[in-house]
Every structure is written in structure tokens, then in C-alpha cells.
Amino acid sequence: MDSNLGDKAKGMKDKVVGKIKEEYGDLVDDSGKELEGKLQQARGEAIQKKAEVEEDLHDKADDLVDKANDKIDDWKK
């Protein structure tokens, strides 16, 4: 879970820095910097989504293990 938190933070950082680059590029009429900012924002969004999906899958796997253990306990009785 800690790596997911780190990924979420990295994704947020990329989104913020990317937005700053995009706005700077727009301000100084530098389309390359503007595009770089948009790409960094997209990368940040992708990193955050990946972390969310991994966390969700981990939670579902834990639920399945718990259910399996409950069934095993029931069978032992």
C-alpha cells in the first residue's frame, strides 16, 4: 500500500508540474513547453489511475482470501 501512496503522490506532482509547464508555455507562446506540460499531466493521471487500480485489486484479493479462509474454517467445524 505504501508504494501506491508514493505513486499517487508522484502522479499528483506530475499533474501540478505539468500544469505549470503548460501555463508557462501558453504565457510565453512556447508550444513545445505547452505540449510537454500536457504530456506530463497525462503521465501523472496515468500513474494515479494505475495506483488506484492496483489498490483496488489488492483489496479484492484480500477479500477473496478472507472468504476462502472463512469457508475453510466452516468446513473444519
TrEMBL record:
Residues 7-58 form the CsbD-like domain. It holds the Pfam family CsbD. SUPFAM superfamilies: Hypothetical protein YjbJ. InterPro entries: CsbD (IPR008462), YjbJ_sf (IPR036629). Belongs to the UPF0337 (CsbD) family. This is CsbD-like protein. The lineage of its organism: Bacteria, Bacillati, Bacillota, Bacilli, Lactobacillales.
